[in-house]
Amino acid sequence: MGAKRVARIAGLDVLLPALLGGLATLGFAPFGYYGLTFVALVGLVSLWWGASARRGAWRGFVFGLAHFGSGIYWTFVSTYYYGGAPLAMAIVLVCALTAYMALYPALVGALAGTTRRLPRTLWALVVIPSAWLLAELVRSWVMTGFPWLSLGYSLIDAPVTALAPIGGVYFLGALMMVSAGTVVLLFAGSIPARALAVVMIGLAPLGLWYTPPATEWTQARGEPVSVDIIQGNFAQAIKWDRDVFRTTLERYRAMTRASDADLVVWPEVAIPAPANQVQPYFDEIATLAGERNQTVLAGTLVHEADDAPYYNAVLALGAGEGRYYKRHLVPFGEYFPVPEFVKTLVDGVNMRYSDFGFGADDQPLIEVDGVKLGLSICFEDVFGYEIAKALPEAGVLVNVTNDAWFAGTTAAAQHLEIARMRALEAGRPMLRAANTGISAIIDYDGRVRERTQEFEIAAIESRVQPRSGETPYMRIGDRPLWLASSAITLLSLLGGLLLSRRRKKVGASR
């Protein structure tokens, strides 16, 4: 094999897919260059154009390694610096997660190669987008799901956000792939395919023009609620330090006492101790809030009995009543889905892990001044269907989180981007309280009205208008996307295999 051929193969199979994968990450927060993500997708579809199944899978895998490696590198920070894993184990775990995530574009690439003999217009506009959509949906479900960096999030500030309340984030990602396929057809397709691409590009603005605005699906309900979001700012390295515990109690007490809002929101596990161990403190906060007809949402832990699990919880103190237990736990972070002998091995290397209990799906909503709240804790707001469980009853969404696990990385900005998409999909404002940031008030159209900076003690005081009604996406969810993408992908795979077999038979008969 000549040197030029080796260089060409290395470029197409390694360097270019890796470059495109890294480029795709720049469309997500904190960068927000969604046009670069689109360019990367056009390049990826072009690399799959005419490639074999094996080569398509490899190029997709390399793309995924670069994309997810540059996009979720912050898992190393939480695993090594705060999770207590030895350096070698932390590197192995992060590499394994990145490789697992890269399998999804690899599978799409394999399907692209298997179906390459289908009509190119069908291949570019239907087969590849459907396969990518199915891959993202499956990634949101396997092992309870990790749908970080789903394509649609990169479009949160693009001129297509009116489509989010209709189809959700995965629908936006599929449309992005259709658009990438359209551009590829424009430059590499047949004359009829190019003509179709021109027509589609011309009709796209018209379609967006006639799409109902995102603000049309829900309506203002009742009077605005005064809110105060408190960001205590305790770094993960000291959050559980007993010498800092008294400072933690006093800071949240003082900041709550200084607020006259109807609703005060503390971050996830703002008080790093089981509630029963600091019950007098919570009683004091409840009395303080009750005297002012105020409700405090306090993030903490709940341990009801010696033989009961710990729960990641939010307690309503004061005028409001109730509690919320986190339902969707982070695998390998908040629960360890492995046999006991593996847990024993992990204990042997002093790596910290948790086994929290799961909250029930049918928990009653906490209510403040007649307004029901749709609560979620940290990772739960990554899943649209978790938010939908509180709708249409909830008028305001609330997410409490602790992104201090990923201090100094892009994780907090990415998480805020995800929260914005949930508010947009639901047509509800969201209150977001984060321990070290980024805390924010997000309007029902997904725009950030007010926010804090990271690593500062801060409070956001404002008024929030509850909403009623239901967006199409909250009503029907992802079910149509699952059905359509599964059916199209299966039929495409069968068609590709049949065409390949027929071609082999024709070749053998000659």
UniProtKB/TrEMBL annotation:
GO terms for cellular component: plasma membrane. GO terms for biological process: lipoprotein biosynthetic process. GO terms for molecular function: ligase activity; N-acyltransferase activity. Residues 230-466 form the CN hydrolase domain. The chain crosses the membrane at residues 7-25, 31-49, 61-82, 88-110, 122-142, 162-188, 195-211, 481-500. Pathway: Protein modification; lipoprotein biosynthesis (N-acyl transfer). PROSITE patterns: CN_HYDROLASE (PS50263). It is an enzyme of class 2 (transferase). It is found in: Cell membrane. It comes from the Bacteria. Its main location: membrane. NCBIfam families: lnt. This is Apolipoprotein N-acyltransferase. It comes from Salinisphaera shabanensis E1L3A. The lineage of its organism: Bacteria, Pseudomonadati, Pseudomonadota, Gammaproteobacteria, Salinisphaerales.
